[in-house]
């Protein structure tokens, strides 16, 4: 059996789990409970069950409280409620839309772009977003054992052109802080690495994730820190999220946001403008607006390119340049994101 420990964890069995870990363990993981908690009528259940079979539901309470009950069109609910459309398989929608399997020189490491590599620091997420381009990712094949992490670190040590390590997943912050502190310590001992980038949705989904343990290793590292949050709608940014962002900034973290342009969720000029304004109030700069990657199960979220371009053109009339996210697509084989 493969050793599943990502990084040695010597916590005693009586370990008291952090608040965010308890919240995550209590997340809703079945469609019936989600529909009941939000007072949705039973007609949503069959579709939710179909989608759930393809990609399990996961919604923590801290996120659920931002969803309006009795409203099947709530923009946050639409991101997490499985629907029968996920079973449709239109041409061109595949399980690995970015062909990441082609770029994994060692387990748990993806090297696509010059100067930076991505490490799969955790196979888990705090929420399962229905449009996720990694909804079919073979995490079980990419959860390195401790020895295999050494292979990934050796890869980083050997390539002096690398200046940035990107922690991804899953959600890298779903790993515990001992694991992450160990990994970051290994990274900061590699002299040519300058930056640590963390792609995460956890500070948004469970703001209590930004606790003293996380802030401790973040503040201590010599690496420059960039956190790319993933927020698609202004309703996701409540006071708890703003407070979490403030704490991260105090620890020296540069905060950026990437969104996905999603049909029925944020595909209007006013919604995108409000999102950018709200992000800035929270101390976060809009960075990317991605079109949906053609992953099986997410075709119903797609906004065609011409419509996306028109939206962004109109958005320019409402926002100062520094609040404009860049509209991009990720094209397999390209050496960077492709602006639209
Ligand atoms: S948090 Fe990120 S990786 Fe996890 S399901 Fe959502 S989009 Fe995918």
TrEMBL record:
Catalytic activity: L-lysine = D-beta-lysine
Keywords, ordered alphabetically: 4Fe-4S, Iron, Iron-sulfur, Isomerase, Metal-binding, Pyridoxal phosphate, S-adenosyl-L-methionine
Radical SAM core domain mapped to chain residues: 111-326
Molecular function in Gene Ontology: 4 iron, 4 sulfur cluster binding; isomerase activity; metal ion binding
Residues annotated for [4Fe-4S] cluster binding in this entry: 125, 129, 132
PROSITE patterns noted in UniProt: RADICAL_SAM
Cofactor(s), by name: [4Fe-4S] cluster; pyridoxal 5'-phosphate
Chain positions found as N6-(pyridoxal phosphate)lysine: 337
Pfam annotation, one family: Radical_SAM
InterPro entries according to UniProt: Aldolase_TIM, EpmB, Lys_aminomutase/Glu_NH3_mut, rSAM, rSAM_sf
Keyword Hydrolase in annotation: no
Keyword Isomerase in record: yes
PANTHER family: L-LYSINE 2,3-AMINOMUTASE, LYSINE 2,3-AMINOMUTASE-RELATED
Family the UniProt entry places it in: Belongs to the radical SAM superfamily. KamA family.
Name of this chain's protein: L-lysine 2,3-aminomutase
Gene name tied to this protein: epmB
């Amino acid at each position: 059996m493969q050793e599943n420990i990502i990084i040695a964890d010597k916590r005693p069995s009586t370990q008291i789990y952090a608040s965010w870990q308890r919240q995550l363990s209590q997340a809703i993981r079945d469609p019936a409970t989600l529909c009941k908690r939000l007072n949705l009528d039973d007609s949503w259940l069959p579709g939710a069950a179909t989608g759930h079979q393809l990609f399990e539901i996961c919604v923590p309470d801290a996120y659920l409280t931002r969803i309006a009950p009795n409203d099947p069109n709530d923009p946050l609910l639409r991101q997490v409620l499985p629907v029968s459309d996920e079973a449709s398989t239109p041409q061109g929608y595949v399980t690995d839309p970015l062909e990441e399997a082609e770029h994994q020189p060692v387990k748990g490491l993806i090297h696509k772009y010059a100067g930076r590599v991505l490490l799969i620091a955790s196979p888990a997420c705090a929420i399962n977003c229905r449009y996720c381009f990694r909804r079919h990712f073979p995490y079980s094949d990419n959860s390195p054992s401790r020895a295999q992490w050494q292979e990934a670190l050796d890869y980083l040590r050997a390539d002096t052109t690398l200046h940035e390590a990107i922690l991804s997943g899953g959600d890298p912050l779903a790993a515990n802080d001992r694991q992450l502190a160990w990994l970051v310590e290994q990274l900061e001992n590699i002299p040519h690495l300058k930056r640590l980038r963390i792609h995460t949705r956890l500070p948004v989904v469970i703001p209590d994730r930004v606790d003293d343990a996380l802030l401790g290793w973040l503040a201590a590292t010599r690496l420059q820190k960039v956190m790319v949050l993933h927020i698609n709608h202004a309703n996701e940014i409540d006071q708890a999220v703003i407070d979490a962002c403030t704490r991260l900034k105090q620890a020296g973290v540069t905060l950026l946001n990437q969104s996905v342009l999603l049909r029925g969720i944020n595909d209007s000029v006013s919604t995108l403008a409000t999102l950018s304004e709200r992000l800035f109030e929270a101390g976060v700069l809009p960075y990317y607006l991605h079109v949906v990657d053609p992953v099986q199960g997410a075709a119903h979220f797609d906004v065609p390119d011409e419509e996306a371009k028109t939206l962004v053109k109109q958005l320019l009339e409402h926002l100062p340049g520094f609040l404009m996210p860049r509209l991009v697509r990720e094209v397999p084989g390209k050496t960077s994101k492709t602006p639209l």
